[in-house]
Amino acid sequence: MEAVLRNVACTVELLAVAAHSGVVSQWDEQTVSRAFRWATYCEHIYIRFHSNPVIRGVLEKQLQLTNHSLKEALPEYNEVSFWDLGRCQNLLLLWMLNNSALPISIMKMLFETRVSVNNINSDYEDVRGLCSQLIQCRSACKVLHRLLGLPTVGAEAQVQGEMLMERLGFMLSQNGDSRWAEDFLSSVLQEFEGAAQHLCPVIAAALLTTTDSAAQTASQNFLLDWLQSQHGVLQHMCSALPSKLLADLAKKHQKFRDAFCKLLKKWASEMEYRINEGEWIHTAANSTVSFQKMTEHFLTLFEACPSIRTETEDELQALKISDGDFDVRGLSVWGDLLLALSNEAHSSGFFI
User: Fold this and answer.
1) What 3-state DSSP class applies to 174?
2) What secondary structure does DSSP assign to 280-346, as a single string?
3) Distance CA 151, CA 241 (A)
4) Which domain of life is it from (predicted)?
């Protein structure tokens, strides 16, 4: 076990070098190949021990020690979690490409096309054309998603979402204690702090993962309950993700549908009419919510879940009446919202 801990620590140090050190300028193809082999080793460690709480705990303690020493030496260093070990090759590639010291020769080697790779007799073909392969895989995923009508969350988010569900399922199966799972989600949230745009697709992918057992359904329900308690994450999801993806989530999960509809009405209540601009503006600080986006979300939600259309329309009508039941633009956000929904529905052939 000592050898495993030492190897993991050395690989994490290798990731730090790849991301922040000028030593990368001296790397050649052989060095890069060895680096990826160590990254693959860490992925195998994750696969082998992620469901073993004792060994996982030992590995996490080692990661904490290594992260602490690296953070002291490199203030800009991004800590590596146990979860990150499962995507170690991706991290190595990403951080290496973001290091300005990476030689052009290595970049060319990574971006070689499959044709040129096949024409080269090399002992290190495992890394040649790696970026080109990833691009091809992602392009294929996008095509398949369109052909099959699957939600487009991205290939990486899809994989991370499945890993998230797998990990939650294991934690929730341990003595029925949910605190471990709550702590895990809190740590994931901390890791994505300041980068919520990357976390939201992962959560969406996790919630859209096909469930084949009661345990998987329980994991998604747990994630939904946690999401409802994290108002900031929920709000960012609903403002950042495409309407179609949000509608898919609402169609599959009633808890999400109720929370999404409630949030849309909250956004409307927080809007004020700017006479000079001639439109409704969301008053929250740094908000990306617009009246048009809110209307689009409502329409897509109604199309995906027709059962809530009448009830929601009645609620909006009651709120309009409480505002004075004005039909003049700019006096009631509810009246203008109902009018916009009606106009958009008629123009798209969807009637409310």
Assistant:
1) coil
2) EEE-STT---BHHHHHHHHHHHHHH-GGGHHHHHHHHHHHHHHTT---STTS-HHHHHHHHHHHHHH
3) 11
4) Eukaryota
284 in Cβ contact with 295 (< 8 Å): no
Pairwise CA distance, residues 268 & 320, whole Å = 12
Structure tokens at 29: 């193809």
Looking at residue 103, its amino acid is P
Tokens of 250: 């609402």
Q: Quick one: 179 exposed, middle or buried, by C-beta within 10 A (0-12, 13-18, 19+)? A: exposed
DSSP 213: S
Structure-token pair, residue 12: 């994490």
Q: Are 91 and 42 in contact (CB under 8 A)?
A: no
In terms of C-beta density within 10 A (0-12 exposed, 13-18 middle, 19 or more buried), how is residue 146 classed?
exposed
Alpha carbon distance 234, 227 (integer Å): 6
Asked if 346 and 338 count as a contact pair (C-beta separation under 8 A), the reply is: no
Work out the number of other CB atoms within 10 angstroms of the CB of residue 212: 8
CB 49 within 8 A of CB 56: yes
CB 188 within 8 A of CB 171: no
- Record the pTM: 0.59
Query: What digits encode the pLDDT tens for the residues 197-239?
Result: 678 888 898 898 877 778 788 889 999 999 888 888 888 888 8
pLDDT tens sequence across 248-296 = 999 999 999 999 999 999 999 999 999 888 899 998 877 888 999 999 9
- Residue 281 backbone phi and psi in degrees, to 5: -125, 135
Single out the residue of 345, 337, 154 nearest to residue 245, CA to CA: 154
The listed range with the strongest mean pLDDT (50-59, 166-175, 189-198, 267-276) is: 267-276
Report how far residue 44's alpha carbon sits from residue 136's, in angstroms, rounded to the nearest whole number.
24
- Amino acid at residue number 27: W
Are 256 and 224 in contact by the 8 Å Cβ rule? The answer is: yes
